[in-house]
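1st attempt posting a full record on here, be nice pls
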Amino acid sequence: MYNKKVLQHFTNPKFFGKIKNPDVVGKAGNPRCGDLLTLYLKIDKKTKKIKDIKFETLGCAAAIAASDMICQLVKGRTLNQALKVSF
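the predicted structure (as tokens):
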């Protein structure tokens, strides 16, 4: 049902967890299916880039894999750059 890349991110997410004392915490959910995402970020004060990012997702394999993928895509980018990422 899911492709190999999605299954890899679901079964072995590299960014799952919490960050102690994050600079930013964001929450989002999908009321239709019940998925809930919490995103934790540490921002480099000098460069304004995301220096660490973690997530906790309660949801299906696709939601967990997508959460891990977006973390991989935005780590090292500025918040403005991260907001422009789409896939």
